[in-house]
Every structure is written in structure tokens, then in C-alpha cells.
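Colleagues,

Please find the record for the two-part complex below.
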Amino acid sequence: MRRPSLGSIALGLIPFLAVCFSVPLWDRVYPRVLGIPFNFFWLICWLLLTPVCMWGAYRLEVRHIPDKDTAHGS
Amino acid sequence: MDPRVVALSVISCIVLLGSLIGFYARSRHTMSLEQWTVGGRGFGMVLVWLLMAGEVYTTFTFLGASGWAYSRGAPVLYILGYQPLMYVVSFYILPQVWELGRKYHLQTQADFFQVRYGSTYLSAFVALLGVVCLIPYLQLQLTGLGDIVEIASFGAIPRAVAMVIAFALVAAFVFVSGIRGVAWVSILKDILLLGSALFIGIAIPYIYFGGVGSMFSALLQTKPHHLVMPGSTPNLGHGWYISTVVMVALGFYMWPQFFATAFTAKSGNILRRNAVVMPLYSVTTPLMFFVGLSALLVLPRLPDSNLALLTLVRKTFPAWFLGLIGGAGALTAMVPAAVQLLTGATLYAKNLYRPLFSPEMTDQQVAKLAKAMVLVLTLGALALAITTSITFVSLLLLGYAGVAQIFPGVVFGLYWRRISGRGVFAGMICGMAVAVGMILTKHDPYLGLNAGFIALCCNFAVTVAFTLLVPAEQRGIEELMADQTTVVEGAALS
């Protein structure tokens, strides 16, 4: 099976770093943004930023496989 | 009018409407096994999105997320952590699984193991693991549904009656329309769930506190520790958060019903695009947290935290609105339950019964057996839901830890040519043993880490060690991994 490109894997790792491994850095109440504690706010932001990263990964992937998905039959 | 009558009528209307959509979806399609299980592999972007959103957001997200925010506080953030990440993981797995599925006519997760590793026993084991893990999940949906009707009717309708009626409807439309019916019911479910989550998530903090910010301020004054991990728990700290998020993000698409949605898509790129946009649907999750946290201030002493959302809605809004939320909640139980039934039944008939006991069965006979199994599973889950109580939530955790053990076999199967089926088998059994052992002896979390995560690490270690140390027997599809255009004879299941 063809592996995803390194670039797209790197883009997929960004959300993992941001919402998972870095938890000690952002798990705090202050500064509150719009009254929402920082940890809640940070994770809500990444609901919107993760699609941005993955959209980049998608652009990289489809460049490598131009419409091959539909090209070969069963 | 009596508020009970109003609320229940609204719920019944929504549930009936949903079921009618489910039946109607059948028209124009003859129900072969292929059509019933994977919708003829013809779903475009919108239907795949609806189906995934429909089955991923279960009563656990609806009632469980607010309940955890209520009782545990900040550790509930793990839900917001794994939700975007599981779609990231799916981006690198599902399109490849889809490609194999298209080529070898795969319909279930166990089919994937059959074709990749050429081992009927490994495939049957994966099927068995899947069915066993699905039962507590199914039971959880039933319990959630029972809770909803009980609250909405102010206790007038016994939960058992509600569960029986709702699940008779679910079994009926699964029986008739298969996966296509489920996808179409998801439309109604998604609209109702999104709409009501957005509304109550904003309105409830506004009504009681004048806004989300003031709600948090009030909470910081009364319970300052609730909003930072470990919140109101003794041991759910940062280590637990990281290990749980990693375990669930990797394991989530190993639930056989989510894995199988990959096969319904028309192309692999649809699955990629879907993985890109799905995290946006999760915006409803923090709103559920807001409701749960408001409930903590407004109704501080509830006996069961899972009822926090519904009780607060009942206290705040008129009866018809409670009915609307209840109806959304009921569909949120019914749609995932439908997919779980369909997947469990197909796994049993196609990957357990046929290969082990009756290899000469035709696809039509498998389809008949699967439909009969829908009824058996429904009755089984109903019996469990009515006779046992809350402890099944801990069994669901076991289910999560259990299905996560399938991950190494899938990811190595796709990307590591040398991987041996026996290594995967050994790793899976080792991971299962560790997970079951630790959870049943109440060592979860252990040293601050999620037990399922520790089990998954053991699983990876054993799988890799076994593959490197024991010379691989190469049956199955070595060639498949090398050259995608050759179809290996005899490897195809059909």
C-alpha cells in the first residue's frame, strides 16, 4: 500500500502536538478568553485549526495520487 | 395540557418520522448483501458525512459529555482532545482500507483481516472481538434512550416499555433498509442534534447567568479546582489525559461499525475530504460541557450525573421543547444502535458462522442469517439493558480498550509488508489480556496512565517482536502490497 507522504504526516502530527502532548502547557484557567477558561478555549480553537492542517495534508495527498481512487475498477 | 403528554407526543412524532425515513430509503434498491451492508459502495461525500456524524455522535456524547463535565470537571476535555485527532488518524487509514475493500469486495472489518493475513481464525477472532465489544455499546444506547423517555414523561412511562418500542423500530428499519436507511435517518438526527445543542448550549448559561463567561466566573468562585485537571477526580491528571486521548484516537475507527463506513464510500478521496471537515461537527461538544457545568451550579445534588442535561432542560424550558430534545436524544440513540446491530449481525453471519461452521453458504443465505441475527442481538441487548444497571458503563470502557487492540493489525497490515498474521494474533491476545486484567482488577488508571493505552503498548511490542523473531509464513497477499494492479487469485472474498 502506498504510504502517505512525509509532508502530510508532518501536518497530521501538528494537531497531536497541540491538543494532546502539550497538555501541561495549556491546561490552566487564565488568561480567560471571552470569559472561557484557557484550556477550554484552546481545544475549541483546535476544532477549527485541525481541518486547516488536514486540508493541507489533503492537498499534498491528492497531488501524489491524481484521481487514482476512481480510476481502477474492481 | 399535561406536560407529560406534550413532551411524549413530540418525542413519538420525531421517532416515528425518523423510522419512516428509514423505511423509505429502501425504495429503488434491491437488498443484496452488498447493498444492505455497504450501500453498494456508492455513497458520496454528503451521505458518508451524514452516516459518520450519525453514528459517531451517540448518546454518550449527548448525555455522557454533559454528565462528565458535571461530575468530573476538566477531565471531560479528553473528549474534545480525541475527537479531532481520531479524524486525523482516519485520514491515513480509511482511504487505504477503502482501496483494498473495493478491490476484494470487503464488507466487514474481519474481511480485511481475512484478505490481508489469509487466516480464517484471525479473521474470526477479530469478528468475535468486535461483536463482544459492540454489545455493551448497544446496551449503553438503550439505557440512554430509557433515561430520556423516563425524564421526559416525568416517570409516567416505564423505561423498559420505551426501550422495547424504540428498538423494535430500529430493528425493523435495519432489517428492511440496511445501511442506506441508517444514513438517511441520520439527516433528521443531525439537524435536530446540532440545532438543539447549539440552542441549549448558549441559552442555558444565558438564562441562568447572563452568558457563558459569567457562568464560568460563578463556577470559579464556588469550585475553583473543577476547571483544571484532575478536576473533581483524584487521579485523572495530565498523564491520564495524554494516554487516553492517544488510545481513543488510534482505536476509535477500530470499532467495527466505524471501520465499515469506509466501504460505503464511492472513492477514497471522499474519505479524506470527510476526515478534513469532520472536526467541525464537534463544536457541539463544548456546548454540552457548558450545559453540564451550568447544571452543576443550578442543580448541584443530582443522583445520576448522566441525567444532568435532561433534568436541567426539563426545569428550564416548556414541555414541547423537552420533547424536542428528547426526540433528538432518542434518535441519537437509535441511529448508532442501528449501525451497531447491522455490523454485529453481519460480522457474526459472514465472518464467524460461515467460515467456521458452514463454508458452503451462499451470500443470500448469509444475508438471511445476518437479518435473523439483527433480531437476536436486539433481544439480547434489550434483556441486558432491562436486567442490569449502570455498571455496564465500565464494560464500555473495556470495549474501547478492546477494539483499540485491533489497531496494530490494521496499521501494520497496510504499511508493513513483513508483518506476520501470527504476530498480530499474539499481540492482540496479549493486549486483550492486559486490558481485561487491569480493568477488572480496578487498576485503571495505573500509574496515572489509561489501562487501554498500556495494553496497546504491550500489543505493539509483542506484534513487532513476534514478527521480527519468528520467520513469517507468507500466505495471503504479499503481492497485493507490492503491486496494486494484480488481483491475487483465491484471496478475493465474494
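Chain B is about 75% helix and 0% strand.

Comments are welcome before we finalize the supplementary table.
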